[in-house]
Amino acid sequence: MALKKWATIVHRHQYKVSLLALVITFSGVTLLLDAPKGANLDWLGVALIVLGGLLITWGVWPRNEPPVVTARSLANRLIRWLTWDSALLPFFPLMGVAAILADLGYNTFLSATPAIQSEDAIVLLAGVALIGYNFVPAKFGRERDFVFLFFVCLNMILVVPLLAARAFYADFERSVDVYSWVALAPQASTVLSLLGVTNSVHMVPGSTAPGLTFTPQKLGVPVTVVITAACSGIYSFGIFASAFVGFVLTEVERLSKRIWVFLILGFLASYVANILRMVVIVLIGFYTDSAQTELQNMLIAHSYGGWIIFIGWVTAFWGVLFRFLPPGKQPVRLGEFGVETNSEKNSLCRACGGALTPAVPARRCVCGAILHLACFRGGFCPGCGHPQSTEAVPRQG
Description:
Layout: H1 2-12, H2 14-33, H3 42-59, E1 68-69, H4 74-82, H5 92-109, H6 118-132, H7 141-169, H8 178-194, E2 199-203, E3 210-214, E4 223-226, H9 234-251, H10 257-288, H11 296-324, E5 332-333, E6 362-364, E7 370-372
Antiparallel strand pairs: 1-5, 2-3, 3-4, 6-7
């Protein structure tokens, strides 16, 4: 009884539970893909992802209720466009297997380090998402589309640029340090100078990444911090940006001015938070490190402080987003024979909006939507992408 009572309480506060589950899952994914240097925290990352998933399953997903037809979101329309009007959906499992084999083959035959790195984990998880896409029940279509778009964006931000750079330089071990040179090191240096910390950004022999040199007050000897791609925070930025885009697209039906403002502010604030992360790390070393500490304070801040700062900022931003994001349309719940129980438009095709009459053949999809037979595009439901149903819709009166 106590468990049922807590489940009811959790279900009443879906937005708060969603925010908590999102932050916990985000923290777990970040630990897996961008773990603090020298820390073996993979087990904690897996535990956080499992905990976040349980919270979503327990408090957010529908319980014993009629099937739900969600409003056609931007994510749904974008996926239909990317899959040539759902024509590629049946091939998703094959694409997923191909992505996994391609990554393993790349590691085996081209990479000098066959161990699974962050980019490999991103590709492998995307492959698993593709394999399982068509097996997710239609009533969880919004969550399914979010996961799909999350991994698409994550690969476009973190994997594709790396592969393009390696192909351009014909170097399969090359790292992408352009972000550090262009969008991080100069900006962090400027902020530090404004705060009274004398520093310089320069090339480092034997490295393609920029170096930031400063002199800690208690040390008196210049110290150089090499800002490589792994240390730049680009992985945390990519994870946040992918989750942010996926969430917004699955929650709205059109890109209004408010949504554009949220998107712009989201990326801008994430970028500023990343610069702040680097500035805080250097400031800790500048004010606290001495000959006795041997830069350990700065290293600890680099390994843990930056991650905590970014997670804290993400929590605050998502909290604001959940509060002010325009609510979507009320989902339509279907009763017996797929007749809508809370809508006056229970005699309209969910695809074209035309009338459903005995004279026009119609079918009910497994997701609950009723459509004209001709509105099943390419034999697939335009809403959820499932194959055309063979069950005719009973007519009343």
